[in-house]
Amino acid sequence: MHAPASAEHAPAKINLALHVTGRRADGYHLLESLAVFTEFGDRLTVAPAAEDGFAVTGPFAAHVPVDAGNLVIRARDALRALDASAATPAAITLEKNLPIASGIGGGSSDAAAALRALSRHWRIDADLAALSIKLGADVPMCLSARSLIARGIGEMLEPVSLPPLSLVLVNPGVAVSTPEVFRALASRDNPALPSLPATLDAASVLDWLLTTRNDLEAPARALAPIIGEALDALDRSGAMFTRMSGSGATCFGLFESRAAADAAAASIRAGKPGWFVAATITA
Q: Which of 17, 197, 174, 23 is nearest to 99 (CA)?
């Protein structure tokens, strides 16, 4: 007997800091990033079925490919290849709450959720971490889905214990191409992340962030100047710290409390009803 429907949270991945430190011969960029995962995200459900199915619901469903170009399908097929007899037909439903191509790891987090849910549903005991790196550089950290420092191309992970952080995510409604942002990067050999402070509380994390960068922010803003407007909106709403996440265009602001984040999100949403705005907290 297989388990009934199985659900997995696919959290947004926020790069609090992202330093590009080099480039490998195969073209992959070397990165150092402090990443956190939020309570807000997508949701993936797997249920037994007569034949494979993949359906997408939620506010951003219209923008999601439902063919083999989707990382969820590729994750399903990669896991099934390990044990075809156990991998019975499954209906996968993805509730897409995160904007597409927005620098917060949505597709990678969905793929990681699919690996977790399907391995449990099919009872396939696999090395999901080894499988995840074949799906994309961000998938291993999304599989872990906890605060961490990622190095290399994203596969070398060091867990970090951070306090819960209240934040607001803002996307001004533009998709930014990650390859284009990397092509526009002025320098690929930049200084590494500074060492984290010995004591990690909200104040020390904030002080540390002020000494770090997102090396992709300048090229992304050159391609999509509206990113600057999103950062300005967060600054005006009282954020203690603002930055773009990943390759953009989603930006985040850190707030003193969840209540302050909720109030800021409501204020930004009122001024920019067409933008994606979400208040959340790190998991």
A: 174
Residue in 13, 42, 96, 215 annotated catalytic: 13
3-state secondary structure of 172: coil
Query: Of 42, 96, 110, 138, which one is the catalytic site residue?
Result: 138
- Domain residue spans in the chain? 6-157, 162-281
- Tokens representing residue 201 in the block: 């509380």
Burial label for 223, CB within 10 Å (0-12, 13-18, 19+), is middle
Cα dihedral 104, 106, 108, 109, rounded to 10, equals: 100
CATH number of 162-281: 3.30.70.890
Q: In sequence order, which ranges of the chain are alpha helices (DSSP H)?
A: 71-80, 106-122, 128-135, 139-144, 178-183, 202-209, 217-223, 226-236, 258-271
Tell me the residue length of the chain: 283
Distance CA 165, CA 253 (A): 10
Coil, strand or helix: which one is 108? helix
Q: Let me know if the fold of 6-157 is the same as that of 162-281.
A: no
Active-site annotation holds for 96: no
> 6-157: which CATH architecture?
2-Layer Sandwich (3.30)
Confirm whether 134 is a catalytic residue: no
pLDDT digits (tens, 9 = 90+) for 206-237: 999 999 999 999 999 999 999 999 999 999 99
- The reported pLDDT for the residue numbered 6 is 87
Quickly count: other Cβ atoms within 10 Å of residue 112's Cβ. 31
Q: What is the pLDDT of residue 199?
A: 92
Structure-token match 């409604």, residue found: 173
121-147 mean pLDDT:
94
pTM of the model: 0.94
